[in-house]
Write the structure tokens for this entry.
Amino acid sequence: MHSDRRIFNLALIGFMGAGKTSVGRLVAEQLHFDYLDSDELIQSRTGRSITEIFKTDGEPAFRALERQVVEELSNRARTVISTGGGLPVNPANLASLKTHALVVCLWASPEKIWERVKGQTHRPLLNDPDPQKKIRDLLATREQFYKQADVLVNTDIRSVREVALHVVHQFRLESSSR
Ligand code: S3P
């Protein structure tokens, strides 16, 4: 990582079900940071659920809202930012996050992801006749973007608490070295 990077925040990226929300909340608590979620921001701005936005306006409209919210995040400090799973696919989003945050990717295998999301219904992209295939396909196309994070953490073999501790440790290391 370039030593002139400014690290005020911590951004979590990764696939649906990687644990960004539960880990993010815990990390925010431990660092005494605020916690924000890009999907929640979109929902509160529009007064509509993500499912509704996808259904009535389509995915491109959702991505445009996501893009807008990411830009606004650059005003934040001492904030853990949890991001929607598709957000880093737009390189401008990742570049923007990297101007103010350490970007940590929570990685999970397709099997683990399925185990974690199968009982949930709020993700339009997984509302598919073959959600397991959808997970494998999406993950394969997104892997290249997730791997551009500053830090990659495998969550398959760790509890939420262990992942959070690891993320806090990495954040302290990176932010104290600049
Ligand atoms: C999406 C992930 C969701 C949400 C939307 C699209 C994606 O967020 O932004 O349903 O493209 O992977 P989570 O990763 O928090 O589930």
Notes: The chain has eight helices and five strands. The mean pLDDT is 95. The first helix runs from residue 20 to 31.
